[in-house]
Design brief:
The complex is a heterodimer of chains A (176) and B (185).
Chain A: H1 2-17, H2 25-36, H3 41-53, H4 58-88, H5 90-96, H6 98-102, H7 105-134, E1 135-136, E2 139-140, H8 142-156, H9 162-175
Antiparallel strand pairs in A: 1-2
Helix pairs in contact in A: 1-2, 1-4, 2-4, 2-7, 3-4, 3-7, 4-5, 8-9
Chain B: H1 3-19, H2 28-41, H3 47-59, H4 64-107, H5 111-135, H6 144-157, H7 163-184
Helix pairs in contact in B: 1-4, 3-4, 6-7
The chains are: A mainly alpha (176), B mainly alpha (185).
Chain lengths: 176, 185
């Protein structure tokens, strides 16, 4: 039990320290959850959807969800603490030396490299998740692809909000 | 602790605890709320200060809104203010998620819920794609950034290199590219 808690903490620490907000956490979460056998790829999809439907940052929501499933309430607390560690360490230093951080060139330089790399792994995780979400027993599920295309169209052209799109998709899931 | 400060600490905690129940669509809705309450309302913060807090919070690792809450709480009421601002911000989503996790585990295999989840899962990749397309702005200030993006994708998807390592490579690349730029200038 202690070992599992430590593993959860360490996993979410890594996720926290190498993610820069929002969607950039999804590939990291997918990596850690699947490699430890804590979640399947389709459960990762579910938690992304749940996190998008509920208030709060996606990383924190995933930590609560994964921690709870693996090791109960204590697990969720430990995981949340892990994902918040950068805030309690690096950000705490930044708060004290705020003026220095505000104009830091090093920070800006790092972001120039991190942003494209984060996008790269986001594309990679889309490939992984597509495999589980659009394939049923090895064959492409055209119904699932159709729902995906409708969702994409509504999000980009229709300017629908994410929760609305998810509710519609759940409804479409019932029909097909 | 002085009474005044205790009140300030309590105020940031309860502020974030209240607004955090309704922050759909990432951290930006919290920032908009802070603008309304503290910049326009109480006038305890200028727009520039809020923008500075957000831009520092965004460029540090971790959840952006956790960082923003900490920076703001620290500014208002010191270290304890920062800690309690984060605590106030995380409690509502954690309570909601705990209940949902319980329901998810209990119901995910029932026929109806399983069908709904099939639809929902089909929408997840487009949601990530739509978010990624928005992230494109500002992600490619130099041509070499495209190499980093495509390289990162291939390293992870094809060669199974851990995401953490790919991001660390990005950090290193950013620092090296910065060195070159400064050497040229």
């Amino acid at each position: 039990m202690i070992r599992t808690l430590f593993q959860l903490f360490w996993s979410f620490c890594q996720i926290g320290y190498t993610s820069f907000g929002g969607m950039s956490m999804v590939p990291l979460i997918n990596d850690e959850m699947v490699s430890h056998g804590w979640m399947t790829a389709s459960e990762v999809s579910d938690i992304v959807a749940i996190a998008e439907m509920t208030p709060g940052p996606i990383g924190l929501n995933c930590a609560t969800f994964a921690g709870m499933r693996v090791a109960g309430i204590l697990g969720s607390l430990i995981s949340a603490l892990g994902v918040l560690m950068p805030t309690f360490t690096i950000c705490a230093v930044a708060a004290v030396f705020f003026q220095k951080f505000k104009d830091s060139r090093i920070l800006k330089n790092i972001m120039v490299g991190v942003r494209p790399a984060a996008l790269g792994i986001i594309f990679a995780v889309m490939i992984t998740l597509s495999r589980t979400n659009y394939l049923v027993a090895g064959a492409v599920s055209f119904k699932a692809v159709a729902v995906g295309l409708i969702a994409f169209f509504l999000l980009t052209k229709g300017k629908w909000s994410v929760p609305k799109v998810l509710i519609l998709s759940a409804f479409l899931g019932l029909l097909i | 602790m002085r009474k005044e400060k205790r009140i300030k600490v309590w105020e940031v905690f309860s502020y974030f605890f209240h607004i955090s129940w309704f922050t759909f669509g990432g951290g930006w809705s919290i920032v908009a709320q802070m603008q309304k309450d503290y910049v326009d309302g109480k006038k305890e913060l200028t727009t520039e200060e809020l923008l500075d807090i957000v831009s520092v919070g965004r460029s540090l690792p971790g959840t952006m809104i956790g960082n923003v809450a900490f920076l703001f709480g620290y500014r208002q009421a010191g270290l304890l203010g920062g800690l309690l601002a984060v605590a106030g911000m995380v409690l509502p989503p954690m309570l909601i998620l705990s209940v949902l996790t319980f329901c998810y585990t209990a119901f995910k295999d029932t026929v109806w819920v399983a069908k709904m989840l099939t639809g929902v899962r089909a929408a997840v990749v487009p949601i990530i794609l739509a978010a990624a397309l928005k992230l494109r702005d500002g992600a490619f200030p130099e041509k070499i950034c495209y190499v980093l993006c495509i390289g990162g994708c291939i390293l992870n998807a094809v060669f199974g290199i851990n995401c953490v390592l790919v991001i660390l490579l990005g950090v290193a690349a950013g620092l090296i590219m910065g060195r070159f730029r400064e050497a040229e200038a």
